[in-house]
Automatic annotation (TrEMBL):
Domain OmpR/PhoB-type: 126-223
GO molecular function, one term: transcription cis-regulatory region binding
Single GO cellular component term: cytosol
Entry protein name: Stage 0 sporulation protein A homolog
Biological source species: Herbinix luporum
Any one Gene Ontology BP term: regulation of DNA-templated transcription
Entries under PROSITE patterns matching the protein: OMPR_PHOB, RESPONSE_REGULATORY
Residue intervals of the Response regulatory domain: 3-116
CDD domains: REC_OmpR_NsrR-like, trans_reg_C
Modified residues (4-aspartylphosphate): D52
Keyword Transcription regulation included in the entry's annotation: yes
Origin superkingdom: Bacteria
Purpose: May play the central regulatory role in sporulation. It may be an element of the effector pathway responsible for the activation of sporulation genes in response to nutritional stress. Spo0A may act in concert with spo0H (a sigma factor) to control the expression of some genes that are critical to the sporulation process.
DNA-binding region: 126-223
Amino acid sequence: MHKILIVEDDTTIANIIKEQLVSWGMIAHCVTDFQNVLSDFTEFSPHLILMDISLPFFNGYHWCSEIRKLSQVPIIFISSAADNMNIVMAINMGGDDFIAKPFDMTVLVAKVQALLRRTYDFTCGSDILEHKGVILNLGDTSLTYQGIKLDLTKNEHRILQVLLEQKGKVVRRDTLMYRIWETDDFIDENTLTVNITRLRKKLASVGIEEFIITKKGLGYMVE
């Protein structure tokens, strides 16, 4: 499981972020001693950091600079100071992304997951996801069921990967759309519906029926 360090002095926001990340299978730790952020960093050894800019004692730029002396761990800045100057400063100081407050938690989680995927080599872990005899190969865009191999499109593969990673949970449509296209730009929701429909037909062609369940008004899930 990936470890996320949350450097946010608003305890309400920090705890909400922590709960959301934990619900997605991550380990999250909130910094409470803002004079010694490096101590938390070295002891916790996170895979990714969420860093506010306005902090007690020293700002987020300072801590980003200090961390960069030790590590290239991904850092996402989260701040209400979302003017161009602060965004440019955050990136120039070593940040990998910037999310303006207030933000949607599903977008935050999606950005965290996308940056983790881009940063770390998953080949050292399991390269398959399996559920009810359906085996999704993470090394390529294929699926195997009862000895039959099925080639999927990139979007179909991503849809199944997200749903299998969160099996038993409802995945919201906006979360799924962000994971597929990894952009904040507007994507017509009908595009997702078309992809889901095609994927279901492809699964049914090899005998996988009612695998993706629609939760009306919420999203999709694999039970």
